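Format notes (please read before filing issues)

Several people have asked whether sequences and structure tokens are stored in separate files. They are not. Every record keeps both together, in the order shown below: the sequence lines, then the token lines. Line labels are part of the format and must not be stripped during preprocessing.
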Amino acid sequence: MKHVLAIETSCDDTSVAIVDRSGYVHDLMSASQDLAHRPYGGVVPEIAGRNHSETLLPLVEAIIKTKGWDAIDGIAVTNRPGLLGSLLVGVVTAKALGLAKKIPIIGVNHLEGHIFAPFLKDQAYEPSSKLEFPFLSLAVSGGHTTIYRVDALGKYKVLGTTRDDAAGEAFDKFAKMLGLPFPGGVQIDRLSKDGSENAFSFPRGMMEEGNLDFSFSGVKASAQRLVQSLSQTEKRERINDLCASFQNAVASTLIEKLDRAVNREKIKNVTITGGVSANSKLRALAQEWSSRHNLSLVIPPSRFCTDNAAMIGYVGIQRFNNGERDTQYLAPSPEGSLG
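Then the structure lines:
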């Protein structure tokens, strides 16, 4: 199999891509729903599903013009985990197109897509040739914060995961406390550039020796108490410092746990993926840490970090070429842990 059409609708971004077996992304098109959800301060599942149903087919029609259906050998679609209504739109569309065009379909785990996003490439980006199995993957987003040991496609071991909020969720909730618009993580990153990360002290959760799990409920609760203690004027005047200090607490916790995992597993190849991996502070800390310890670190460009269909296409075509297929009984599921 040479090329697949990939579909990603697990949450609030509608995305389609055409990917080949080498991981080259021939085209990637996405539609954001940020403005639709901004009045509510977070993703509203019903609105997300409805917007996918309006946006997905026009995106498919647009991207197919770049290659034509004759070049498409299969369809890969996210079918787990995620918002059930959103997943349903993608899965039903993939099954209908598979029937109409008489080509096979395959369901892909969204988390697996993030893990293999560093293998993607296009005209502007190519991953390091040193990226090989086994490697450690920190998958960090609005819904997930997990460190995996990856030995091969389909062979994963969870080394540590969040016990409560994901890192991206913590960013969004803190932004909401400050009255910043959704999505909050982007706003915090922007404001942090003009703030002092040492202005406020926030706790780091579950930092006892050897622990690889995460907890962001403590830093979130501490931040809420601090924000409530400040006047509106103080919040406005010190918002940059608040954002920088909170961002540093979260990012440094992620790197500390990843460092422990490297020391435990004795693996020098490391990747960081997911929406939060676009955060500038996390990237800066990761680059400094990897250089200091002579590690091979790969963080894909932002377009491959956030939810995108290209990463789904890469996993899908690898599984197709391993002989895997799904039937018309393929169903969406809100659950889908790895390892």
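For reference, the curators noted about this record: The first strand starts at residue 3 and ends at 8. The chain has two domains: 3-124+306-321, 135-299.
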